[in-house]
């Protein structure tokens, strides 16, 4: 295994995204005179007039963070051993995620619909394995196109901010036998109430004949969707992700817990915990527990 991406490039990209976050908040997050502060989803997806005026076409998509110190209870060496028989993995590594989106078409045909292209990269880096040149254990790439429909109705006391539908591709960009890839039609819905933001995500997996050897039984472990919840408490953000395959026999799932706390300017301290299956594509059928600490670029006010 070789290390093709070094720390300066990672930090440089994160700093660039920090500038982007700051610009987005300065240009679009300020409420109109006498108006209430816009919600998290409203700012994130530029859902009203105040957040759209002067908003950049390039914006933050999902969270951008780096877990400088991340402890994995059971690193999954089995797939790597097929190609690199001498592979050894350290339980302590670094993890980072870079994610942005580009607004391709605003107010399609004069309607309350926007078209976005999003890209997310998540990497698991054996940064402390200096003897082996600090290789990247796994990197997942996830481009997607999303039509975002702005909505104004309520469900059980929650305000429905948007409904999204689109196409998602995720792969790790590797050749067999380490290749993992799948394609999905996605349907998302964002609802909010006060300081609570809920994102419901579901998908339909397109099964291709060439795909099965690359990620066997991925639906058995990743299921049909997941739920994200964020709660904003003063300057802190608490988050949880729940995923389950919804099967009584062979039940599989995952939970991710997050805590972001004030640090400096647009950068917050960040703690993330994960238990379950599917943290990465290479680990979609491997159960692990992880706890990590680092920093996150703040995309909320």
Account of the 3D structure:
This protein is mostly beta strands and 301 residues long. The protein has one domain (7-297): Outer membrane phospholipase (ompla), Chain C. Helix content is 13%, strand content 49%. The chain contains five helices and 13 strands. Strands 2-3-4-5-6-7-8-9-10-11-12-13 form a twelve-stranded antiparallel beta barrel. It starts with 6 loop residues before the first helix and ends with a strand. Mean pLDDT is 89; it is low at 1-9 and 22-30.
Task: Furnish the topology, listing elements before pairings.
Layout: H1 7-28, H2 40-44, H3 49-52, E1 58-60, E2 65-72, H4 78-81, E3 92-105, E4 113-125, E5 136-155, E6 158-171, E7 181-193, E8 196-206, H5 218-222, E9 225-233, E10 236-244, E11 253-264, E12 267-276, E13 288-297
Antiparallel strand pairs: 1-3, 2-3, 2-13, 3-4, 4-5, 5-6, 6-7, 7-8, 8-9, 9-10, 10-11, 11-12, 12-13
Task: Give a quick summary of the entry.
The protein is mainly beta.
SSE series: HHHEEHEEEEEEHEEEEE
Q: Look at the structure and name the CATH superfamily.
A: Phospholipase A1
Question: Which CATH top level class fits?
Answer: Mainly Beta
- Note poorly predicted spans: 1-9, 22-30
Mean pLDDT: 89
**Total DSSP helices:** 5
Oligomer: single chain
Proportion of beta-strand residues = over 45%
End-to-end CA span: 41 Å
């Amino acid at each position: 295994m070789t290390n093709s991406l070094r720390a300066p490039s990672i930090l440089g990209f994160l700093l660039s995204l920090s500038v982007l976050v700051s610009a987005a908040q300065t240009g679009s997050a300020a409420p109109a005179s006498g108006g209430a502060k816009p919600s998290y989803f409203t700012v994130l997806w530029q859902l009203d007039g105040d957040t759209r005026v002067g908003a950049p076409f390039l914006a933050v998509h999902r969270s951008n963070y780096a877990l400088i110190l991340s402890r994995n209870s059971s690193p999954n060496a089995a797939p790597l051993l097929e190609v690199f028989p001498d592979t050894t993995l350290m339980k302590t590594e670094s993890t980072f995620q870079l994610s942005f989106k580009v607004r391709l078409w605003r107010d399609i045909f004069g309607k309350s619909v926007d078209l976005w292209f999003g890209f997310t990269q998540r990497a698991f880096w054996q940064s402390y394995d200096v003897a082996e040149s600090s290789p990247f254990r796994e990197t997942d790439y996830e481009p997607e196109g999303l039509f975002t429909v702005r909505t104004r109705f309520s469900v059980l006391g929650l305000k429905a901010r948007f409904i999204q539908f689109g196409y998602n591709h995720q792969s790790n960009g590797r050749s067999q036998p380490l290749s993992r890839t799948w394609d999905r039609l996605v349907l998302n819905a964002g609802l909010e109430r006060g300081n609570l933001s809920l994102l419901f995500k579901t998908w339909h997996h397109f099964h291709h004949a060439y795909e099965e050897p690359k990620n066997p039984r991925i639906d058995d472990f990743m299921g049909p969707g997941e739920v994200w919840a964020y709660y904003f408490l003063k300057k802190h953000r608490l988050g949880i992700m729940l995923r389950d395959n919804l099967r009584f026999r062979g039940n599989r799932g995952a939970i991710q817990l997050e805590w972001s706390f004030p640090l400096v300017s647009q950068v917050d301290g960040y703690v993330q915990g994960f238990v379950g299956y599917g943290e990465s594509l290479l680990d979609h059928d491997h159960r692990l527990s992880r706890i990590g600490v680092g920093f996150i670029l703040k995309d909320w006010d």
